[in-house]
Write a structure and sequence with these properties.
Layout lengths: L1 H16 L11 E13 L10 E18 L2 E16 L7 E18 L2 E14 L8 E15 L4 E11 L4 E8 L1
Antiparallel strand pairs: 1-2, 1-8, 2-3, 3-4, 4-5, 5-6, 6-7, 7-8
Length: about 180
């Protein structure tokens, strides 16, 4: 129960941190490069579920604005991401990893000229070398997230996203470019 409460609290903190953003302008396409991590309790290192571990990863994405409404917009695009879980003597090439490729959709609200908040989902294909009995496994990759974009000018900005995912990091930060 304590573990569930901590995970819920961390999720809410992550969502709260990501509530800042940037306005959609006449540029239709956004491309981003994000670095991220998952935080979890490592059962191997932990004797009482107290050993927290970080899983590095990242993603690249492309969003294309297909509709606007009031101060908002709807985008569709694609995302590719990865996670590196660490080393293992049983893993292919000695590393445990996940890779995901998926369509992406967001709905966003322009809270200011330089500030946008969005909700999004991905659903696609995941690849892993540790999630099953085979050396290389495939599965269903998905994510739900809340995010923000803060632009320094019309083309260049910072993005934060946090949520829940499988095969890709739960919390991401990185650079975005509008075209």
């Amino acid at each position: 129960n304590m573990k569930k409460n901590i995970i819920i609290i961390l999720s809410l903190i992550g969502m709260t941190v990501s509530l800042s953003a940037n306005a959609q302008n006449d540029n239709k396409m956004t491309i981003g490069v994000l670095g991220g991590s998952n935080i979890y309790v490592d059962p191997i290192l932990s004797t009482n579920n107290s050993a927290w571990a970080f899983v590095p990863g990242g993603s690249v994405f492309m969003d294309y604005s297909v509709a606007t409404f009031g101060k908002g917009h709807f985008t569709v695009g694609a995302q590719a991401g990865f996670q590196l879980w660490g080393k293992s003597s049983t893993a292919v090439n000695g590393n445990l990893y996940d890779i995901a490729v998926a369509p992406r959709a967001t709905v966003g609200w322009n809270l200011a000229k330089w500030f946008e908040l969005h909700l999004g989902v991905t659903a696609g294909l995941g690849f892993s070398n540790w999630r099953g009995a085979k050396d290389f496994n495939t599965g269903f990759s998905y994510s739900c997230f809340v995010g923000t974009e803060f632009f320094f000018n019309d083309r260049f900005g910072l993005m934060l996203e946090a949520g829940y995912s499988d095969y890709t990091p739960d919390a991401n930060a990185g650079l975005v470019f509008r075209f």
